[in-house]
Amino acid sequence: MPSKIYGILAAGRPFIAMMEENTEVAQIARQDTVDFVVRPGGVDALVGAIREAVDAPERLKQMGVRARRLAELRFDRINVTSRFRRVVAIPKVGGPHHRCERLVAARIPVQM
Fold first, then answer.
1. Inside any domain, residue 50
2. Is the pTM above the cut of 0.70?
3. Helix 57-74 and helix 43-55, axial crossing angle in degrees, nearest 10
4. Alpha carbon of 1 to those of 29, 53, 65, 71: distances in Å?
5. Which of 30, 38, 61, 105 is the most buried (most CB within 10 A)?
6. What is the largest CA-CA distance in the chain?
7. Cα–Cα distance, 27 to 66 (Å, whole number)
8. What pLDDT sits at residue 110?
């Protein structure tokens, strides 16, 4: 997911995403109703989304509230780093590979 999306969500702002429906951003947008999604090249859909946004300020406000809540619940630093740790299987501090983790954190090359 593009990193700028995290900042937009954290700021509590809805947005218009011009991207394919199967992207993570589009899926989050649909699931959590935090933005508008239009397909690349969909000029008419983009114009429609802009008009819909302009005509529904209360809806935009609610999308912003949901965006902020999503940022706090799913994309805060603690949750994201926890998920990242599980994905890359970095052992917890004090575990058998703690030295390796310290070297990685310090950006020191590790020889295997």
1. yes
2. no
3. 100
4. 12, 23, 20, 13
5. 38
6. 60
7. 15
8. 43
Residue 29: which of 47, 57, 51, 49 has the closest Cα? 49
What is the count of structural domains for the chain?
A: 1
Backbone torsions φ then ψ of 83, nearest 5 degrees: -65, -40
Cα separation, 69 vs 1, in Å, equals 18
- pLDDT tens for 53-110 read 999 999 999 999 999 999 888 877 776 677 677 777 655 555 555 555 554 554 544 4
Task: Report yes or no: 70 and 32 within 8 Å, Cβ to Cβ.
Answer: yes
Angle between helices 57-74 and 24-32 (to 10 degrees): 120
Domain contains 111 = no
Token pair belonging to 29:
């947008």
Closest to 67 measured CA to CA, from 4, 110, 12 = 12
Domain around 68: 3-105
Q: Specify the DSSP class assigned to residue 1.
A: -
Angle at 71 between CA 1 and CA 86, to 5 degrees: 60
